[in-house]
Amino acid sequence: MNSAVTHLDDYDTEHRFEATVVGSERITPEASDAEVRELTLDLNRPDFALALGQSVGVISPGSKEFGQKHHFRLYSVADLPERGGSGLPRIKIAVRRVSYVDPYSGEQYPGVSSNYLCDLVAGDTITMAGPYGLAFEVPEEMDANLILIGSGTGIAPFRAFVKHLYKNVPSWRGTITLFYGARSGLELLYMNDERDDFSQYYDIDTFEAFKALSPRPSWSGAIDWEGALGQRGEKLWSLLGQPNTYVYVAGLEKMREELDKAFAQIAGSEQKWARRKAELTAGGRWVELLY
What we know:
CATH topology of the largest domain: Rossmann fold
Low-confidence stretches: 1-7
Strand content: 25-35%
Radius of gyration: 19 Å
Strand order of the largest sheet: 4-3-9-1-2-6-5
């Protein structure tokens, strides 16, 4: 494990395979301006072996305007892998339809991969590569404290991870504290009226989930990590001082700076937090999956 961020150009996409779309379902409410779809894919690679917490690559048609032949993006697997009716490996990924504004012209362009994937229907085929990345591993200590922090579609690997712990690891007796950040409640995935996968764990004494929302969602305000984490600062700081605590982070790369600021407030100073985070990272107990 490590917390290094790898750039997309560093990934090996030479070994590719085809996948067939089994289904595409919107998992954010229609009232939300954020369209996130969950794609179910059958992989035409019978020997595909996926470790929990890894990502897969999608190679979509490139943007002709920019002279791109192909466009490569990573997506976290959002559920435990299984076998489909055809016997092929079946996975799910969560994709948010995005667009980008050119800082010079002010023109808006659709995100290449996200729009390509969100427009797919059952029966379509796509080209994929992978899997990639180091897994969020189940700690050796079955009584470990897990602090999971995700934003946006970064919740996808934690959905699979928590499900694995409670379904497939009978000796697990550790605690799980999940923090999920989004601009508004309508953008929360697997924790909304459309799909509330995490509700099945709310009655388990060792599981807690907290939302970190923007105080000004209509103005695209920043996620309130300082508020969500700070309200539980004393407990979090105590957990971070224990040798069996692991922190797993998934989401946009800008989270790193936002979380450092929030934890520095909890610690009392930037220096004190830097020392604690360095200890966690050196021990493989602070792991980031950022994009």
